Amino acid sequence: MLDILRDNWLLLLIGQYPNGPLGGLAMTLILAVCAIAAAFVLGTLIALARTSGIALLYWPATALVYVVRGLPPVMAVFWAYFALPVLIGRPIPGFWTLLTALILYESTYLSEIIRAGIQSLPKGQVEAAKALGFGYGRITCDIVLPQVYHTMLPSMVSQFVSTIKETSLGYIIAVQELTFAANQINSQLLTRPFEVFLILAVIYFLVCFTLTSAARFLERRVARQRNAPALKVQPA
Amino acid sequence: MGHLLDSLSIVSADGGTWVWMGLATTLALTLFAGAIAFGLGTLLAVIRVAGGRGVEGAVAAYVEFQRNVPMLVHILFWYFGIAALLPDSVADWINERGSEFVFAGLAIGLCMAAYVSEDLRSGLRAVQKGQYEAAQSLGMTYPDMMRRIVMPQVFRVAAPGLVNQALLLFKNTSLAMAIGVAELTYRTREIESLTFRTFAAFGVATAVYLAVSFVIMGAGAMIGRRLDFLRR
To answer: What angle do CA B114, B221, A147 make, to 5 degrees?
Structure first.
């Protein structure tokens, strides 16, 4: 098993780069980071639309969330694979296909997490801000979202782990990420599939378990801070 | 509108049979993997709580491994990796029954068992100590106590989470297309490549997936309401 790792560690890490396209674990992580960053913005917008109380925003956002939650990720990938070139009018690389599907999928899940955070915020926060004469924009950006993001940090890390796992779907549409690289090695060696796919599983495990543990650590910390006695306001 | 008519014509023509055959395989795979997931998941949750430190560590390691590796990788690992290790007689036996289906079901079921066991474990924590003590003071044996007193309460607490896992499991069966199980997504691709009616074919598959998903979500909401009622 170690000899497979010794001969192919570079392919697993960065694909054929610099002699070919970037791939392997590097591509997996790039995809996941780009997807979660864009999904974070889109998810916030969907969550705001669903908590806005405006029917014209609420219903489309709610429908989107339910439809995407009801579909397998594979279907999202195929929709992006077929629909995107038609919409744009020219063929697009697999990287963008997979990224679009991941953003669509993850933003709805993140929006549910953010929405739960907004709804669990004590009412007094918004009321106090209103009493001070803050507008919707300031209340949302300065009062609501910072607190939501802080409490939701652990869930967002776990969602990042889900995203990393979902990038493996790139294998189905031949995007050169980690699973694709392992499959390449398997087709070269032919006779040692058990070892190759075990190595693949262990790599995913090491990356994802590290992040899951970090999420647990954050969860304990956030919980401690929330339960901490409120700061006493010093008299002026 | 054109796409909608096209979709209808796909369902009514030969493609329709393929769609239903695909859905039948998807549902069969859901049931097969679901039986493994809920059976093993319950077992894991119980022995993790009841067993000593060694057992608890082993179950925890299993759960972490399953949850931190993509399901697609589990499927590939079973189909390519484990299959290569099996003795010929076992491999032949599985091949006769459709090795793609069996390995995909095993991989999905074993992975989802980890998620199910975590849901049940948090349900087990919610059962009060007095329940165990009362059962023991009545002279119940350990299996009897678990089966009659503890687990019914656990399933009640864990129900919303378990419905969610059922939905996830149903959706994840689509990953089996990667190794050639002729489930709904795989059949849709076949119809698409034969007819070139891409949007109609994927439109039909999307509608079918959504219909089943909404039934599961609706069942979840109903169970949730019923449990709220019981708690009152």
So the answer is: 75
